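Render this sequence as a predicted structure.
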Amino acid sequence: MAGVTPDRGNGTPSGRQDTVFRRILLKLSGEALLGDLEYGADPDRIAAIAAQVSHVAQRGVEVAIVVGGGNVYRGLSGAAAGMDRATGDYMGMLATVLNALALQDALEKLGAHTRVQSAITISEVAEPYIRRRAIRHLEKGRVVIFAAGTGNPFFTTDTAAALRALEIHAEAILMAKNGVEGVYDADPRVTPDAQFLPELSHRHAIERRLAVMDSTALSLCMDNDLPIYVFNMDDEHNIDRIVCGERVGSVVST
């Protein structure tokens, strides 16, 4: 869809350049921020991700991000052992806020205009999640980072990604994976002869319990015809390739 989007955050118009998507949602796991660390966030890794996102945003693509918290929560797992599930989930939500703020800082160092919106109220550091406000930020060319999942326990950040993508009318979810090229019929780290699946349906992924997203998230995407692009985050050009229409990784669609 060609066109010019006015007021890209700094008051200057900017049209999209050779891209096939107008608006995307990027799902980053907390582990994507680990780098070589056992837990925590690697500043170099975060800076590399921010550079990819900033480049795509400069093309005129509207980018929203949902980030997980596994890299932080992994360090808390001992303390959380035996804890009530809801309490543990709220701890995980707070971990995603830490990651969102780190990613925001890295993006703004590159000159990107950003907003963090949290599903739980932390007014000192993030806006509350308001759908129409999020859409307006995107229309102004700001990168919007959604933190704290859905704001409810028992729901994963995968489900948050599917929900937010549908709410903001994203055209696709870009699902970043670590060290794998896309979807396989088995874990390639465990099964060396696992078969790579370049294309599959949401239903196929659900029925075979493939490691794409959790079943709730996949069902949301299937019911609303939302495609998922699963790709290797380690290649710094993959996000740009996908938004430019190149076939990268696996595509999950109806």
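Summary. The helical segments are 43-58, 70-80, 85-109, 131-139, 157-167, 202-207, 215-223, 238-243. The CA atoms of residues 85 and 154 lie 8 Å apart.
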